[in-house]
Amino acid sequence: MYALLRDIVLSIFMIASTVLSYLATLGISYWLLVSIGGMDGLDWKLQILLFVVMIAVGVDYNIFLAARMAQEAKRHGKIKAIELAVASTGPVISSCGLIMAATLGSLMVGELKLLTQLGFALALGMIIDTFVVRPLLLPAFAALTGRTGKANMLNH
Questions:
Q1: Number of structural domains in the chain
Q2: Measured distance CA(57)–CA(63) in Å, rounded
Q3: DSSP letters of 108-120?
Q4: Domain assignment present for 60
């Protein structure tokens, strides 16, 4: 991320927001599946598998949005760049998130406890990441700090 954006603080925030999304997903999954759903507990492998997938997808969505903010900041002010970036990437990120949630959520129909839990947690995680973290946290951080990255990409 740093190689693309040339902003260490923004890069660290993007990773931290993805980890926050993972932790929220894990907590909500435990609450819904164990406390309310009556399962014995979460499978120990769930934490690892959920972390790997959520970090991979979350960082990808972050880079997509942040790179667009950096591109727009070259032509517009930072606040306008954030608005334009969210408006232009929002539908794409939302569509991808919904597709991922539906696809990964299909794991819930299986008989294996791990797959049921993993499908639920991944679907929930994609929804949290897509509709809370990307459109709210990252743009708010960028607006409050004025950090939109510097987009060191090849000119298209």
A1: 1
A2: 10
A3: GGSS-HHHHHHHH
A4: yes
Residue 154, classified by CB atoms within 10 Å of its CB into exposed (0-12), middle (13-18) or buried (19+), is exposed
Which tokens belong to 128?
């949290």
Cα distance between residue 122 and residue 22, in whole Å: 9
| Residue carrying structure tokens 């993805």 | 18
The verdict on residue 11 lying in a domain is yes
End-to-end, the C-alpha distance of the chain in Å comes to 19
pTM (predicted TM-score) = 0.84
Instruction: Give a yes or no: residue 89 inside a domain.
Output: yes
pLDDT digits (tens, 9 = 90+) for 80-93: 989 999 999 889 99
Answer for the pair 116, 29: CB distance below 8 angstroms, yes or no: no
What whole-number distance in Å separates Cα of residue 85 and Cα of residue 66?
8
Asked if residue 73 is part of any domain, the answer here is yes
- For 49, other C-beta atoms within 10 Å of its C-beta total 15
In the block, tokens 């129909």 appear at 109
Contact 46, 114 (CB under 8 A): yes
